[in-house]
Design brief:
Elements (H helix, E strand, L loop, with lengths): L2 H15 L11 E5 L6 H17 L3 E5 L6 H8 L7 E6 H9 L11 E16 L8 H10 L5 E4 L5 H13 L4 E4 L3 H10 L4 E5 H9 L4 E5 L24 E9 L4 H15 L2 H9 L3 E2 L4 H22 L5
Parallel strand pairs: 1-2, 1-3, 5-6, 5-7
Antiparallel strand pairs: 3-9, 4-7, 4-8, 4-9, 4-10
Helix pairs in contact: 4-11, 6-11
Length: about 325
């Protein structure tokens, strides 16, 4: 910790004891989104910002700092003054980064005060309609009968779709071949065209094509069936213990006064009870969550370990 940050932290703690936190926030709050404008994280952050602006009485300002798969914005917040006026939108991609690199300039657990999980987004396993598998059990049986003959596409090595499928492959005991693409659209296009047999992508990417009958969905990667597609089985119903979801949550720099974290957590949990807010998230293909700060921290730890397992079975090199 730098001397400047240490002094700010010490001052914040003293001021908290005399009631300073009761006046929080005293100026506009910056929410750093380590993704581009229009991304899932950005849209969720703007929904949250609009609501917190109303309830906290100060403007919530979105600051998009994309780059390095979310690493640039994450590092900025890890070094910010811990007074609650700089927050970070953390997503599952940052947990991917922690699993893929041992040389990040921040620690996703130790360098942040976690506020609350906000929402999760399942991935959906889809296949070309000509594939002779109508459910996950039949797909596993087909893959075991034809080892190494089924190809799956992803938006690229190390992406959520890649790691989620590798974890599924390992737990199901099947051999399928990874074909990396430069983005979601080409992987989905080739699955529809029959160049690929299957792919696993975020729900928002595949829903339009599902409605048109160009692909067939076999299941969602969440631990249980999603409210977004309640008729679609969870892969865990065939592969016990399997789970992979994208998720979003807010955090602050480490050593932010506990009173501020508690207040932000309470505001977010109240926000997540709103039917309007839940409906807006559902329109984006996301389920609402909510947690205590400690539950959020524990969640991140578990997710990083799960990602490390997926990286190991995928054969990707850890930097």
């Amino acid at each position: 910790m730098t001397r400047r940050r240490f002094l700010w932290t010490a001052a914040a703690c003293v001021l908290a004891q005399v009631g300073w936190c009761a006046d929080y926030p005293s100026r506009p709050v910056r929410i750093v989104v380590p993704n581009t404008a229009g991304s899932g994280a950005d849209v969720v952050a703007r929904l949250v910002a609009n609501r917190l602006t109303q309830t906290l009485g100060q403007q919530m300002v979105i600051d998009n700092r994309a780059g390095a798969s979310g690493g640039i914005g994450t590092e900025i917040v890890s070094r910010a003054v811990p007074d609650g006026h700089t927050l970070l939108m953390i997503t599952s991609q940052q947990a991917n980064n922690a699993a893929l690199s041992s040389r990040l300039p921040y620690d996703l657990v130790k360098d942040f005060s976690h506020v609350s999980l906000l929402a999760s987004t399942p991935l959906i396993l889809v296949v070309n309609p000509s594939l002779p598998a109508n459910n996950m059990r039949e797909l596993v049986a087909l893959a075991k009968a034809r080892p190494g003959q089924l190809n799956y596409g992803t938006p690229g090595a190390g992406t959520a779709g890649h790691l989620a499928t590798e974890l599924m492959r390992s737990m199901a005991g099947i051999e399928i071949v990874h074909v990396p693409y430069k983005g979601t659209t080409p992987a989905l296009t080739d699955t529809m065209a029959g160049q690929l047999q299957l792919t696993v992508l975020v729900a928002t990417a595949v829903m339009p094509s599902l409605k048109g009958g160009k692909i067939r969905a076999l299941g969602v990667t969440s631990a249980k069936r999603s409210q977004l597609a309640p008729d679609l089985p969870a892969l865990a119903e065939t592969i016990p213990g399997y789970e992979w979801t994208g998720w979003y949550g807010l955090a602050a720099p480490a050593n932010t006064p506990r009173e501020i974290i508690v207040r932000l957590n309470a505001e977010q949990l109240q926000m997540l009870k709103s039917a309007e807010f839940r409906e807006r998230l559902a329109e984006l293909g996301a389920d609402t969550l909510g947690s205590t700060p400690q539950e959020y921290t524990d969640h991140i730890r578990r997710q990083i370990e799960k990602m490390r397992l997926a990286v190991k079975v995928s054969g990707l090199r850890v930097e």
